[in-house]
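Please predict the structure of the following assembly.
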Amino acid sequence: AQSVTQLDSQVPVFEEAPVELRCNYSSSVSVYLFWYVQYPNQGLQLLLKYLSGSTLVKGINGFEAEFNKSQTSFHLRKPSVHISDTAEYFCAVSHPVNDYKLSFGAGTTVTVRA
Amino acid sequence: NAGVTQTPKFQVLKTGQSMTLQCAQDMNHNSMYWYRQDPGMGLRLIYYSASEGTTDKGEVPNGYNVSRLNKREFSLRLESAAPSQTSVYFCASSEPPGLRTDTQYFGPGTRLTVL
């Protein structure tokens, strides 16, 4: 079974500053990795995903994430945040052993201040 | 193209009442899912349907039933609501088998309060 740990529950950040959201997973097999974003009072939408290949993955809205197999991590970064990036961010994993069902982390709330 | 739609958006129930949450998708996806979202716990899978005519339990199925009415629609039923079922419920769908690593698309959610 896979599990996902998001190391920070709340991340306050000033506008135009960089942000990093940390995600670690535990699995005995290779997994597929995802970051989803949930804006206030909305459903989730995909930011980016890692399936294979290059370990640096670029997503929408200037976000990117790096897959580190040795550290079992998939941290999300953005070099300069905007007020509109205020949202909750979820890391998730899936694997064919688990019929590709997503297992989500608890989420990280990012609050961007002017 | 509306994507994934859910009804109702909000609902308040009394303990013991029943209700059905509706979900429909217009993306011709084979797989559909029901999740609940609780503070500090992320999303947890209640039930899923890999294809029309099949349903399977997820992580937290107790107290719920589902029906895959057709390829487009997947409903979630609470037969006798309990306060522990107060949550935000999300429906999602994903692309056909063969592309099993694909994105799940989420509806806007239903906020349910059980008094």
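The radius of gyration of chain B is 13 Å. Chain B is about 0% helix and 50% strand.
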